[in-house]
Automatic annotation (TrEMBL):
SUPFAM superfamilies: Serine metabolism enzymes domain (SSF143548)
Pathway in which the depicted protein is active: Carbohydrate biosynthesis; gluconeogenesis
Biased composition annotated in UniProt, kind: Basic and acidic residues: 227-237, 254-268
Protein name as annotated: L-serine dehydratase 1
Annotated source species: Truncatella angustata
Region (Disordered): 1-36, 213-237, 254-276, 393-451
Compositionally skewed regions (Low complexity) per UniProt: 213-224
Record has Phosphoprotein as a keyword: no
Domain Serine dehydratase beta chain: 46-205
Amino acid sequence: MLVSHGLNSTKLVRHQSSVTAASDDAPEEAPEGTYSEADHEHAVISTFDLFSIGIGPSSSHTVGPMRAGNIFVTDLQEAGLLQQVEKIHVSLYGSLALTGEGHMTPSALLLGLESADVETVDTAYVPERFEQIKKEKKLFIGQGLPEGKGKGKEIIFDYERDFRWQWGKKLALHSNGLRLTVFDKDGNMLATNDLFSVGGGFVVNGAMSTAATSTTTTESGSGELCSTHDEPTGRHPADLAENMYYKEIRRSDAAGDRRTGAEIRASDNSEAPTGLLGEEENGLVQSAVSGDVAAPRFEETQGPRYPFRDASSLLALCHKHNLTIAQLVYENEKSHGYTDEEIQEKIWRIWEVMDNSILEGVQAPVDETLPGSLKLHRRAPALYRRLTRGLYPSHTQSLSTTSPRSPLNSPRPIKSTTTTTSTTALARKEASGKRGPPRVHGSIAHPVMPSPLRRTTFPAMDHLSVYAMAVNETNAAGGRIVTAPTNGAAGIIPAVLKYTVEFLSDDVERDVPTFLLTAAALGMLYKRGATISAAEGGCMAEVGVACSMAAGAFAACMGASPETIEQAAEIGIEHNLGLTCDPIGGLVQAPCIERNALGAVKAISSANLALSSSGMQKVRLDDAIRAMRLTAKGMRNEFKETSLSGLATSVPFNIPVSVPDC
């Protein structure tokens, strides 16, 4: 939604869509939920939108806001307003305000306004540039746009004054809401945009456009826009906004059938447009973007070749056309306009980034702490060393001389904090140190004898745990990872796929595409039928969904039928229902990192249960997704990524979430 004022040309005004414009007094929960059983919107989106490359620590609080900033300045550029901007106000609402600082939302959003690309931005540059913006009080909006010139438009930006945390307020559509408002040199509002980060890096605009005339308004006391309409907000997001199912910055670049919003059109002068947002009360009118628009990447299509809306229709299509789930998704990707070569290239690029995020995590210094006030120590490097003890190259070589395999703009160069000599001494001490008698806690004179300490070994569980924790520690440090389907659960799918590739696969060229395409199909079902946003469904929407996706994908690589894959996915989500999202300190660290390790192990267990069963399960995947949706609706807001209850308030950690994290 782009709201424009004071343009010299004929103004374009947006009808109120079924999205209610930003309302500060919106109810905490819409009674209808966010899904309608009568909705016949298909579930198919691109695998490469569901699995997108981004930066940590959060897909909804970091990746989404950076993409939102890009969308906003692109709209300004296309409307011819960019060079008129002299001031910008940024406001965060709901979960974005409550946990945004610990999720690095401010730095991501401001770099998005400077048109940084979340897939390619140097992750080490993000915090550096953020500090520079705060110090110099300057922002160069749109400097990375293809049409931009040089540094973009330089404006004065005082972080303490212009970046606003709206604690206790929530916009109507979604808890992860943000509002961007720009003004000209005279203080007149030029444009405002309400955007919603709905999970997995997807960003939804708040309204659709139609034509009318505009008026000019000056900045109000707060410089913000409120809706005066009470339109219901409980419909499925597909009915509400045009970009629920794609991640392109420009609408024209998306596949034609996924542009669900109304087209921009001139109003009929004989009939006044209805439902204008706040037209009479505050004099604000909404303008569609105008000007030249880049040529679309996709031709208009009739939709995917094999559209499905739920698990039942997905299985029916597989049987009707004699295709595996992965094959069916592959054919749909071709409907999105990709060639065979492009599909393969994108699949292997995703796996490359996943694999590299594991490598980054296990090669990090053993004694390094993660960013944030928790001062949480990395655990994956030490666990990996113990897991690979006795293998070549030795730890003294691997940890002091190796570097990531591929130049993927890694989070930071891995620099060992110890010299080769000191590391060698440590290894020698570990290998030859004199062992004392085993420690025993308890009385040896008691009838129930105490057990001596023993080290358990479950190689599969150990590998899965290390892989998953490595990814999430990379994510927590702001590194480059793949949203799978979110950042908070980014370790589960890479861990299970890594284990499959390294220990089980007899054909990696077959199994990597099979795994990712199958997982993508399952993720599409959750995105359409429930949610992949922790702000809507707690951690079951992140770790629960990722566990389900990994379980089904693992079963597919084991040769399972579509029905068995469905059963594995159902088991994966069924036993994550009600899982809360209550991160300590608002950081994606505790319990998130360990929870990914358990999610990976649970995914393998779910798949094995399905593979060893008779296939006569009572609960279908569609039933479980429906149950997830109802559970999400019934959960209290305190357990939906707000850090207002649960572990976040039970652990003695006396730094309020709303206080900016250093």
